[in-house]
Amino acid sequence: MKAVVTVVGKDKKGIIARVSGVLFENDINILDISQTIMQDMFTMIMLVDLESSELAVKQLTDKLHIIEKDMDLSIHVQREEIFDSMHRI
Amino acid sequence: MINPFEIIETINMIDKENLDVRTITMGISLKSCAGGDIDVVCGKVYKKITTLAKDLVKVGEDIETQFGIPIINKRISVTPVAALVDALDEPTAEKAVMIAKTLDRAAKTVGVNFIGGYSALVHKDYTNGERILIESIPEALASTDLVCSSVNVGSTRAGINMDAVKQMGDVVKKAAELTRDTQGFACAKLVVFCNAVEDNPFMAGAFHGEGEGECVINVGVSGPGVVKCALETVKDADFGVVAETVKKTAFKITRMGQLVAQEASKRLGVPFGIVDLSLAPTPAVGDSVAYILEEMGLEKCGAHGTTAALALLNDAVKKGGVMASGYVGGLSGAFIPVSEDAGMISAAKEGALTIEKLEAMTCVCSVGLDMIVIPGDTPAATISAIIADEAAIGMVNSKTTAVRIIPAPGKKEGDVVEFGGLLGTGPVMPVKTYSSAEFIARGGRIPAPLQSLKN
Hints:
- The complex is a heterodimer of chains A (89) and B (455).
- In chain A, 37% of the residues lie in helices and 38% in strands.
- Chain A has 89 residues and is an alpha+beta fold.
- Chain A has a four-stranded antiparallel beta sheet with strand order 2-3-1-4, with helices on both faces.
- Chain B has 15 helices and 13 strands.
- Chain B has two domains: 27-194, Anaerobic Ribonucleotide-triphosphate Reductase Large Chain (Alpha-Beta Barrel), CATH 3.20.70; 220-446, Anaerobic Ribonucleotide-triphosphate Reductase Large Chain (Alpha-Beta Barrel).
- Chain B is 43% helix and 17% strand.
- In chain B, helix 6 runs parallel beside helix 7 (162-178), helix 7 packs across helix 14 and helix 8 runs antiparallel to helix 9.
- Chain A binds chain B through residues 4, 6, 8, 32, 34, 36, 38, 43, 45, 47, 56-58, 61, 74, 76-87, and chain B through 1-11, 15, 62, 65-69, 252, 255-256, 258-259.
């Protein structure tokens, strides 16, 4: 199962390191990554593969919420299908 | 990979613009539970509901977490209970209320927000069971927490059953009186329909219709805030652009609903029925249908032009949504429940929005006079006459109309009634004080209207 991890917030050091660290520790492969500044906000979008991990979306979300609080960011983990269905005919 | 702007757009819709799936509603047939012995019937009803819906809430919550889409309500609709009352040996109102209490208990066991279907369809005439069920509605609603009731009093093909209209005025009054301590809350769980639909997932009017199967999943989407925000980007553009913007937004909202419906259907092993494309407001700031109309350029919802704005909105929502879902049904359109919509509450408090204007708006929108609080001393005949007017609009225009009106005991024009939660805040709106009593006392049936010579 693939999921999209979205991180939005004020730019600071270590965002990518910490988020990708959690993914690595839990055996989650990053398939694609894009990072940009959108409306003055740091915006990172990762497509990740949860197949090999034992974590479900809920558990991954809980782990990333710790970083979300620590670094004052907004982090979402959502299954890929929602974006496909809303934006593709 | 999906375009980052599209991902951020979806996240903003959910985080900032109140996009949500309003309800996953499981329709359950109770036909197999009919029988003569009330205790046996109640036992079967409880068992069937708690078996089929045991995972409904958990599946809803799992989908919510995995897709990051808020799913506000999980609900159940059942076969109109009047059919069960008809089959009882020596049916009575007390026995009907026992079934209502069983539904309430089953709903609480599985953890859903509401259960609908304490209903009767009497658009032409009553059976004995239907008559008994309708008599029992005030007591059934006052003695349960989650049970919702609806009565269909008219249809385009049958006309309007004016005996039922007359009776429903009394039923609404009595329901309000029995729940005097909660300002007539029972009436918020009671809808009087014309042309009721069989697969509506929204409360209080949901029931599992005659043509439905054993069990089905229907989903109702929402998202007035998303439509309003989209319209903010096309300020001063002409109506072609406005309609196009609403259509595109409705498409995206509905696709999300379709995805949730398919996923829930798969996980529960229950067929997918329909997606209901309704714009359902909540009292939350920024989740209002009235604000969409105001965004189109009206100073206040209720101003002249409101009906036209609502007609455009309602039509564009359907056009955008229809292509996004394989099966569209239910009520599908814009809802205008006064107490549940921050913009409508404000317009009603200021006197910009009146019952007469709301009645006109119901000619072009999804349902009808919804969640309107009126003075507690309004006579039953006046309530019946309001129902008759609304049913006539539905009957002639071949659309669903409904009345969910609350004569709040002891309250008068200018007072405000707090229901709390999604049901919101209702300013008491004035009704005409001229009597309709002789008109309502006639009874009988208004014949079905012509379907040609339409002018």
